[in-house]
Amino acid sequence: MEDLEEAISVARQAITATPLDHPDQPAWLDNLGLRLGDRYSRTGALEDLEEAIDVTRQAITATPLDHPDRPRRLNNLGLRLGDRFSRTGALEDLEEAIDVTRQAITATPLDHPDRPRRLNNLGLRLGDRFSRTGALEDLEEAIGVARQAITATPLDHPDRPRWLNRLGLRLDNRFSRTGALEDLEEAISVARQAITAISLDHPDRPAWLNHLGLRLADRFLRTGAMEDLEEAIDVARQAIMATPLDHPDRPLRLNCLRFVLGVRFSRTGSLEDLEASIGVARQAIKATPLDHPDRPEWLYDLGLRLGDRFSRTGALEDLEEAISVARQAITAISLDHPDRPAWLNHLGLRLADRFLRTGAMEDLEEAIDVARQAITATPLDHPDRPRRLNCLGFVLGVHLSRTGALEDLEEAIGVARQAIKATPLDHPDRPEWLTWKRPLSWPDKLSRRLPSITPIDRDG
Q1: How far apart are the C-alpha atoms of 327 and 314, rounded to whole Å?
Q2: Measured distance CA(362)–CA(285) in Å, rounded
């Protein structure tokens, strides 16, 4: 750090001692911008980033259009603007970063050794804009320039693995958007190539293994190939083993292992996988700061797994904790959070579970309340709306069985009609929802318990 401070000081002195119209002045300004960018990367001081952008702009303004260093300076400005976008979220910085990087590439000869790097930078920024706006044309272009960068890069170039990994990320984005299996296949292939090309102690290896594990899990979910799921678990474990205990991404990688173990439990019913999934979920939450934006989701996921274990073993303490962490997750997100309706629906089911186990009416009353909240927060055209309506119908049916309240019956019939109306004719759940063999036929694990609830004697 001491050397960096001295480099910044010397760069400032050079600028001060050089006339504004001196041909070396743009180079000194550009050098100062680079050093300030380095210090920002080390310290996160936003004022360094602001000044780096300012002096790089000055350097470009003072550089003739046909100067051989102009493309490099434009690229440097794009990098710094991209950094500021990542820090502040200002879309105008991202737009300008894309624009100046395009200019840099246009001015770079096809055989220039830095052209692949500049193409990669453009792809990175286009990927950022896709993530922000969802514009598929940005994603398509990001994939295209990533391919160009890789094609123009020698097989033994040290940056090639990183660019392969980024291409894999973009292909995965497109798979998630379009469902094209060929994108997922290629994403897995280039992820493998990237990992194979780096050393075992490479600092990016854990992240790339984690990414590969998730893609393999995606392919399992699409094709059902158990070998993909087994490998996903294996590489997720490798990623965690290679991640230091105090690394900020360790909770994320633990959560990915939790996910793939949970998937295998769902497929095989292995209690060992469920236990392991719960264990790593706890580790992930413990290692995550209270204000981390991912913490609520991880709490919710832990609640799902605890609910699974309760269903398997009947251990009431698992159900109690599942309800507790679901409440924590919901409390930690905003009222307009897109996951809030699903999480409320889940909490309602867990409260209904506890009522069916203990008979505590306050749980049933709250289950009805949160089920209503879930529906209110769900758009009319959302594909999960029928399921949430059916959930409300179920808990109303349970309440009816306990109290005989006619208003419960009326509302239950009403929401059942809404659920059926909103369900496509070929939906696999539609036939079941058309019957009242069980109260609105919500999940078997709940419905099977209903016979133990004695309906009131209407004649007495």
Answers
A1: 21
A2: 29
Tokens read off for 129: 């804009």
CB 108 within 8 A of CB 71: yes
Average pLDDT over residues 410-424: 81
Helix (H) / strand (E) element for 90: namely none
Distance between alpha carbon 311 and the CA centroid of its chain, in Å? 28
Other beta carbons within 10 angstroms of residue 249's beta carbon come to 13
pLDDT at residue 444 in the model: 43
Tokens read off for 326 = 């679901």
Q: How many CB atoms lie within 10 A of CB 391?
A: 28
The Cα-based distances of 428 to 342, 424, 432 in angstroms read 20, 9, 8
Under DSSP, the state recorded for 441 is G
The amino acid at residue 185 is E
Let me know: does 80 contact 46? Beta carbons within 8 Å.
Answer: no
What confidence tier does 116 reach under pLDDT thresholds 50, 70, 90? very high
Instruction: Say if CB 389 and CB 372 are below 8 A apart.
Output: no
pLDDT at residue number 458: 32
What CA–CA distance (Å, rounded) separates 134 from 451?
49
User: CA torsion angle for 168, 169, 171, 177 (degrees, to 10)?
Assistant: 160
Judge whether residue 171 has pLDDT over 60: yes
Q: Residues with Cβ < 8 Å from 331, sequence gap 6 or more?
A: none
CB 456 within 8 A of CB 442: no
CB 35 within 8 A of CB 1: no
Could you give the CA distance from residue 95 to residue 54 in angstroms, rounded to a whole number? 17
The answer to whether the pTM exceeds 0.85 is no
How far is CA 37 from its chain centroid? 28
| Model confidence band, residue 452 (pLDDT cutoffs 50, 70, 90) | very low
Q: Which two tokens stand for residue 310?
A: 């309760």
Q: Which residue has the higher pLDDT, 413 or 343?
A: 343
Q: Name, in order, each residue with C-beta under 8 angstroms of 187's C-beta and a sequence gap of 6 or more.
A: 168, 169, 171, 172, 175, 215
440 secondary structure, DSSP code: G
- CB of 194 within 8 A of CB of 161? yes
209 Cβ contact partners less than 8 Å away, ≥ 6 residues apart: 195, 235, 236, 238, 239, 242
Q: How far is CA 414 from CA 417, 420, 444, in A?
A: 5, 10, 22
DSSP symbols for 345-395 = HHHHHHHHHHHHHH--HHHHHHHHHHHHHHHHTS-TT-TTHHHHHHHHHHH
Q: What is the DSSP letter of 18?
A: S
Least confident of 33-47, 162-176, 364-378: 33-47
